[in-house]
Design a protein that fits this description.
By secondary structure, the chain is an alpha/beta fold. It has helices at 41-59, 86-94, 98-115, 131-143, 158-164, 175-181, 222-234, 248-263, 294-299, 311-319, 331-350, 362-365, 370-379, 384-403, 410-427, 434-460, 464-476; strands at residues 6-9, 14-17, 25-30, 63-68, 147-150, 153-156, 197-202, 218-220, 238-244, 268-274, 277-279, 282-283, 327-329, 479-483, 488-492. The chain has a four-stranded parallel beta sheet with strand order 4-3-9-10, sandwiched between helices. Strands 5-6-7-8 form a four-stranded antiparallel beta sheet. Helix 2 crosses helix 3 (98-115) and helix 4 (131-143) packs across helix 7 (222-234). The chain starts with 5 loop residues before the first strand and ends with a strand.
Length: 494
């Protein structure tokens, strides 16, 4: 395929031309949410970043299989106080089946993603549905000698692996430093080395989620699911593995180690990571009180929010930055995003009102290259911020033609319309908010009623000229007007 798409590979630390392993097919795996609570702003960024990549690859003509997993049960993210699996704890406290907790939050996550206009992935596998594949992975690693059993649990032997391969090549961490900096935690006495990580954990009696295995009744280590499910759905080698930058270490580093230890090489050609969102300069975190869920944004129901922000405002806010830069949340920044998005949507609606001139001017000529400049920005490691800045420039030109007698030709008007539709809507995935289009329609309707009321008044005053003019002008704009006993009826001609 003839296109120079370059993406930044976290592994090589540089931008590389994207060349898929099996053109025109592209396999893409992104670490999805852990569903033990409502999705927050931090979930929106990877979902939107890789939605843009998914949309753009499809726009380039690739057939993309996009796998985004759901981390549901059996992962090792334990509650800090009790050491209990978070889903198990919630299920116990609320007397629910663990799967009820999972389903509840999964539904809410999907709902939030739909509101953000994030396309559903091709496959959304759940970790709990792939225990057999994870056990197989652990067996393969054991067979190659890179793991050991200890009291019914299986651990990955990091120092042994690091003798032959390179543990730390993705994150750039040094294993000796790791050994020295790893704190001794409960249960670590089972491990031979502090850096070793669990592939399988024997379940304690109070642990609800457990599966039989050759070693013990227990549950897989968190890193296993993505290696096992990536392999199952995308094969031993696939193109892209993505996620948030916070997953580089340990999660993705461990995934590489598991893949190399089980099959001899890394499954992934391009590793991609989005940067984080900070809140007033601080990292987001429950304990910092700046942890805002997407629903709280949509309804404005968090003490840090001065108003509600629509899903499209959130999407626009995220796309205004390059995905590898941090973004800082503040009410001011979101209000600016809201304003910016509305001005682009307004400009798009104005395109149909641009009068065609025989000749344009210097500014309007740039509209002819708008689409190719947007493509160039996307090809440069998905520079959505640059695409938006080109669209803003075009918006200024549109408004100058509509309001200030600037000129544009028919082909320039067609070019700007096509570029807006392709980039603003199809690729950046922004859309008119339902509420906004309802409001717009209500305002139009009220304006037409107002004019027809004026016409009634004119008729009462026997001012036939005015009455006819209003009727003819509205008719020319496409309104069908019928006089009735009560007054009038109108509709838009189909
Ligand atoms: Zn993962």
């Amino acid at each position: 395929m003839e296109h120079p798409l370059f993406i930044h590979n976290t592994l090589t630390r540089k931008k590389e031309q994207f060349i898929p392993l099996h053109e025109p097919h592209v396999g893409m795996y992104v670490c999805g949410p852990t569903v033990y609570g409502d999705a927050h702003l931090g979930h929106a960024r990877p979902a939107i970043t890789f939605d843009i990549l998914f949309r753009y690859l499809k726009h380039l003509g690739y057939r993309v299989r996009y796998v985004r997993n759901i981390t549901d049960v059996g992962h090792l993210e334990h509650d800090a106080d009790s050491g209990e699996d978070k889903i198990a704890k919630k299920a116990r406290l609320e007397q629910l089946e663990p799967m009820e907790v999972v389903q509840y939050y999964m539904n809410r996550y999907r709902h939030a993603m739909e509101a953000l206009n994030v396309l559903p992935p091709s496959i959304e596998p759940q970790a709990s549905g792939h225990i057999i594949e994870q056990i197989q992975l652990v067996e393969d690693i054991l067979k190659h000698g890179f793991a050991y059993e200890s009291e019914g649990s299986i651990y990955f032997d990091v120092p042994k692996y690091n003798k032959t391969y390179h543990y730390g090549k993705l994150s750039g961490r040094n294993i000796d430093e790791l050994i020295n900096s790893t704190r001794e935690l409960d249960g670590q006495s089972e491990k031979h080395n502090p850096t070793d990580f669990a592939l399988w954990k024997k379940a304690q009696p109070e642990h609800i989620m457990r599966w039989p295995s050759p070693w013990s009744e227990g549950f897989p280590g968190w890193h296993c699911e993505c290696t096992a499910m990536g392999k199952k759905y995308l094969g031993e080698h696939f193109d892209i593995h993505g996620g948030g930058m916070d997953l580089v270490f340990p999660h993705h580093e461990c995934e590489i180690a598991q893949s190399v230890a089980s099959q001899g090489d890394d499954m992934v050609k391009y590793w991609m990571h989005n940067n984080m969102i900070t809140v007033n300069g601080q990292k987001m975190g429950k304990s910092l009180g700046n942890f805002i869920t997407l629903d709280e944004f949509f309804t404005g129901s968090h003490p840090m929010l001065t108003q509600a922000y629509s899903p499209m405002t959130i999407r626009f806010f995220i796309l205004q930055a390059h995905y590898r830069s941090t973004i800082d949340f503040s009410n001011e920044a979101l209000q600016a995003a809201e304003k910016g998005m509305n001005s682009l949507l307004d400009a798009y609606h104005h395109i149909d009102r641009m009068p065609e001139s025989a000749e344009g001017d210097e500014a309007s000529r740039s509209l002819l290259t708008l689409e190719s400049r947007c493509a160039e920005a996307m090809n440069d490691d998905l520079n959505t911020a640059m695409v938006l800045s080109y669209l803003f420039e075009a918006a200024t030109i549109i408004n100058a033609v509509v309001y200030n007698n600037a000129k544009a030709t028919k082909s320039e008007i067609e070019a700007v319309k096509s570029a807006f539709e392709r980039y603003l809507f199809d690729i950046l995935g922004l859309c008119e908010e339902q509420g906004t289009s309802d409001k717009r329609e209500a305002a139009y309707g009220a304006a037409v009623d107002m004019l027809l009321d004026e016409r009634m008044k004119a008729k009462t005053n026997k001012d036939w000229a005015t009455a006819d003019r209003i009727r003819n002008d509205l008719s020319a704009l496409g309104f069908e007007i019928k006089d009735t006993k009560e007054g009038y009826e109108w509709k838009l001609r189909q």
